[in-house]
Amino acid sequence: LGLSTDYGEGQIFIGAAAEGGPSDFDAGSSVYTDVDGNTDNTNQFELKIPYVPSLTVGFYLTGTATIGNTTSEFSPISIIKIKTVITNRRITYRVNQN
């Protein structure tokens, strides 16, 4: 849990997940180029964070990556928000007969 306005600070440990493990919901890979022009191929990683009662809307989340005994810096923060479903019952469909 982060409490800063840019990169996070560790306050409360929520959990851990391993790339390629059972909690990884994206087994793909992609190519990316960073701001310095370096191109790399990397594994994609998607995880779901379990509900933690002490976390509420407006709190900040941050994370780190660990390989071996080395841990990265904290990631940029993400703000916890309420999921929004938008419905619009006044949608008009126009079909051309051509």
Percent helix: under 10%
- The H-and-E topology, N to C, reads as EEEEEE
Structural class designation: mainly beta
Whole-angstrom Rg: 19 Å
Short description:
The chain is mostly beta strands and 98 residues long. It contains no helices and six strands.
Question: How are the SSEs placed, and which strands pair?
Answer:
Elements lengths: L28 E5 L5 E5 L16 E2 L4 E2 L2 E2 L6 E2 L19
Overview of the structural elements:
This protein has 98 residues and is mainly β. The chain contains no helices and six strands. The strands form three sheets. It has a two-stranded antiparallel ribbon. Strands 3-6 form a two-stranded antiparallel ribbon. Strand 4 (66-67) and strand 5 form a beta hairpin. The termini are far apart. The mean pLDDT is 77.
What tags apply to this protein structure?
98 residues, mainly beta, two-stranded antiparallel sheet, two-stranded antiparallel ribbon, 6 strands, 18% strand, extended
